[in-house]
Amino acid sequence: MLAEQYPYAHAELDFRNPFELLVATVLSAQTTDVRVNQVTPVLFARYPDARSLSEANLTDIEEIIRPTGFFRAKAKSLHTLSQRIVDEFDGVVPGTLAELVTLPGVGRKTANVVLGNAFGVPGITVDTHFGRLAKRFGWTASDDPVVVERDVMELFEPRDWTMLSHRVVFHGRRVCLARRPACGACAVATLCPSFGEGETDPAKAQKLLRFELAPGKEALHAEMLANTDNAAAIRQRTESDAAGVSP
Ligand code: SF4
């Protein structure tokens, strides 16, 4: 049902290869994907790979990534990360979970994002939205991301893991919100054991919906449904117009 609701779900960070996705994921901490997507074209035009970034001047990196916040710490992380990739992996981002988590600042969540989206290796990405919804759906009883990941992996086929991650996160950002889920306007309400945790009145719930599902955004939603392969670009365009709020 989530696949029907969000046929256009996708990775929300822009990237062209594993290195770019790894860097973008590091930059995405404590900020919106839109902001990251605004700075990465400049960063990658100047430093297209781990080798060039490892040799970059720290102050130059800081200046470029400043809009993403915590720019000093992030610049240092990217520098160290790139150096390690050059020293230990000959400048190429490794393609296994075991190797990725040895990189500084790369935990299971980041590693799974990179594996699932840049290497095509199935993975469940447990961020705050996924963890919350997995509990509400009754897929897990745990708050520990590693346990959530393991519990959900047992319920679904590996081929579905990456897209499932995107769809659940999309649902968490638009409908099953942290404080006030819009149960009365939720496509999976009949299947959800937590129905009633949020607003059940359909008209009131409708008003809680976000982004392309929000009242007044019908044209945007229709455009994304009609152009599922291009939905990321459509979303980026409208969010940039709306001063950078990321779904
Ligand atoms: S019914 Fe409510 S709690 Fe369940 S998924 Fe929908 S919005 Fe979330």
Task: Record the SSE blueprint.
Elements: H1 2-5, H2 18-27, H3 33-46, H4 50-54, H5 58-65, H6 71-89, H7 97-100, H8 108-118, H9 128-136, H10 145-155, H11 161-174, H12 202-208, H13 218-226, H14 231-241
Helix pairs in contact: 2-3, 2-8, 5-6, 9-11, 13-14
The structure holds iron/sulfur cluster.
Keywords:
247 residues; binds iron/sulfur cluster; DNA_glycosylase; glycosidase
Task: Please characterize this protein's 3D structure.
The protein is mainly α and 247 residues long. Helices cover 55% and strands 0% of the residues. The chain has a domain of 101 residues: Endonuclease III, domain 1 (Orthogonal Bundle), CATH 1.10.340. It contains 14 helices and no strands. Bound molecules: iron/sulfur cluster (SF4). This is Endonuclease III. It comes from Sinomonas flava. Pfam families: HHH, HhH-GPD. It catalyses: 2'-deoxyribonucleotide-(2'-deoxyribose 5'-phosphate)-2'-deoxyribonucleotide-DNA = a 3'-end 2'-deoxyribonucleotide-(2,3-dehydro-2,3-deoxyribose 5'-phosphate)-DNA + a 5'-end 5'-phospho-2'-deoxyribonucleoside-DNA + H(+).
